[in-house]
Amino acid sequence: MVNERVLVLCATGKAGRHVCRALVEAGFDVYGTTRSASGSLAALGVTPVLANYTLRDDLERALAQTNAKKVFVLTDYFGAAGRSIEREVLQGKHAIDAAKAAGVDHLIFMSVADAERFDAKTHHIKAKVILEDYLRQSGLRHTILRPAAFFENLDDAANWNPLKKGSVSFLTDKTCKFCSTYDIGRAAAIAFGHPEAWAGKSLDIVTWQGDLAAIAAALQTVSGLPVRARLAMPMALRRLFLNDLHHMCLYFENEGIAANPEDFKAIVPNALSAEDWFRFHNRYANGEPIVTA
Known about the structure:
- It contains eleven helices and twelve strands.
- The chain is an alpha/beta fold.
- Strand 4 (70-73), helix 3 (85-101) and strand 5 (106-110) form a beta-alpha-beta unit.
């Protein structure tokens, strides 16, 4: 496994950078696509590859440049695809087709847990279902990772939800199932390290279950400070301004993701709980550490 080359697409994004970290820690030789020449990837031990991961030509060039035979693929509905299902599908097809043309021997695709069960109004998940099917038909050896809600959304200043000292917020206060993007990377390392065992398989990534009050209690335990739980916005505003995410939350609230943390912990026994994630993340949005002792 050591020195096996992996190309991670969108390596500086919310998920990509922690996937890179986990793969580096597992001993892979990791390359990551980035549109910037900044040193953030190199600091993680990742070789940056200047490329636009949504373009077929750039992907072919990145694969040729790195000679990576393992690829971690994700797509981005809200950002790179501009909230277009068609453009997100094209992103994923470009990656799958480029990988096949380059002779990649294992592709991991990051989808969403229960992707096929969300209603039609949850637009940002529909492309994942299409791309899962496209990948299965591609002939590539592949694994599909299907994460639950990201812990990282608890500190998401870019989307108006920074983690501040003494409070924590989310779009719902009901019980949800969560995971860290780091555990997505650890699952990818296991699948890449045991390709025959994981060929053609899917894995739901659910590492912890709890409501917003339990999240606040976890942060209070880790920080040693009182923490108030609050909704990121009133329900009426969530419905009005974030209709797509509103319907995702309705699925969390009314049906809930089928997989359980115990299932994933059979694969990654030390997967992160809410307390673990706050220690791992260990910073508020302003850069102050959560753990001060």
